[in-house]
Every structure is written in C-alpha cells, then in structure tokens.
Design goal:
about 230 residues, alpha/beta, Rossmann fold, 7 strands
Length: about 230
C-alpha cells in the first residue's frame, strides 16, 4: 500500500504520514525545507522500519517542482492508494492591505499544487479503479473572516476543486474527501497567544482521515468540518 502526502515535514501532514506509516503504508512526502523533511522521514522510519519512505524536497508553489515530484513518485510506486493534498501557505490579512502578488503565490501553493499533482496521479488510480484523494481544506472554505483575505479565497477554491473532482470520479470508483479543520496546533499558529488546549491536535485530523479511509468500499465521506470544542478562534 502506498500513500503520497504533500507538505508533510510538520503539522498535519507529518501526523498523517506517521499515521499511515504505522498502518503499514509506504509513504512519499515532500516539503520545501530539505533538512526538516529528512528529519521527518527519519521519525517516520522509526515508527515503522518495514515501510519505504520517499522524501523529496519540493516547492509545491512551482508547477515544475510538482511535476518532477509526481514523476519520482510514479517511478517508485506502482500504484497510489491514498493521495493527501495538504501543502499550503497561511497568511492572514485584509484584502486591501495584503502585498501585491500574495494571492497569486497562495493560489499556486494552496490550489494549483493539488490540481497538478492530482492530474498526474489520477490515471493510475482510474486504471485500477481504486484510490482515495484527501484535499486539506479549512473551515475558511465555508466561513468568511475579516482577515481571511487571499487565504480564504484559496480555501474556497480548493473546496470547489474537491467537490468537482468527487463528481468526476464517482464512476471510476475513486473516492474524494474534503477535510476542513479549524484551528490546529501547528506552525501556522506560532506566536498566537492561545492555550494549547484551545486548539485541535494534528493527530486528530490524521485519525479522522484514517477513519474515513477505512469505511467500506461502497461508502465515502465527502466533506468533514472539524473545529475545536469551543469553536473557531476569532
């Protein structure tokens, strides 16, 4: 069994990669920082020395990097059972105040990366009529916030991509799930003054992903909204 997780050197992506490795999946992971990525790969191997870990430094905001990553994955794995489009950038701020070019950069990292990688790996899934694609959306995909800005636009777009993909792949027996977590204790929230227990843990998202994956073949979770027990942080 093989899984691909983008943006997996830390946070939710790392938690998902570890969870799938523990469950016996070979994993292909990517992130921009090569040193951090290799440290994560070693942690994954420690959890399950029997599986293969493919760690490829990749800037998911660059189409050529995404395509190169896809080619290396296809060369290493005959089939892809799980694809987790998790890579993304979080920069809050009001639209009128954000720097020029931020929307374009965030669209590339948060949306186009998932689009291009999925297109590269889909033919293999369709050929064997199985596979599960998880798109890491956000509560910001559903609810507008005063400082949502470019980030919220990209997450609304990612949810739209995910919904459309779900419709396209029904007849091919490939599942698509949109996971939309709210505030989660990751690097994106570093410096934010809130008690740790006010946020969810990355492992919560990983466990929910696994629960969705392990349903019967004829069942699919289309969309999931996850929030801290006390709700979003405004």
């Amino acid at each position: 069994m093989n899984a691909v997780i983008t943006g997996a050197s830390k946070g939710i992506g790392k938690a998902v990669a570890i969870k799938l490795a523990v469950e016996g999946f070979n994993v292909a992971i990517c992130a921009r920082n090569a040193a951090t990525l290799e440290q994560t790969a070693e942690e994954i191997r420690a959890h399950n020395p029997a599986i293969q870990v493919l760690a490829i430094p990749t800037d998911m905001g660059k189409k050529e990097d995404v395509l190169a990553f896809a080619e290396k994955v296809k060369a290493a794995f005959n089939t892809i059972d799980i694809l987790v489009n998790n890579a993304g950038v979080f920069v809050p701020g009001a639209l009128a105040e954000q720097e020029e070019g931020l929307l374009e950069n965030m669209m590339a990292a948060n949306v186009y990366s998932a689009y291009h990688l999925t297109r590269q790996l889909l033919p293999g899934m369709k050929a064997v009529r199985k596979g599960h694609i998880f798109n890491m959306c956000s509560t910001a995909s559903y609810t507008s916030h005063p400082n949502g800005g470019a980030y919220s636009i990209t997450k609304f777009a990612l949810l739209g991509f995910s919904r459309n993909l779900r419709e396209e792949l029904k007849s091919h027996n490939v599942k698509v799930t949109s996971l939309s977590p709210g505030p989660t204790l990751t690097a994106s929230w570093e410096g934010f003054d809130a008690p740790p227990r006010r946020m969810m843990e990355p492992e919560d998202v990983a466990n929910l992903l696994w629960a969705a994956y392990t349903l019967s073949e004829q069942a699919v979770v289309e969309e999931v909204l996850m929030r801290p027990m006390l709700g979003d942080i405004s």
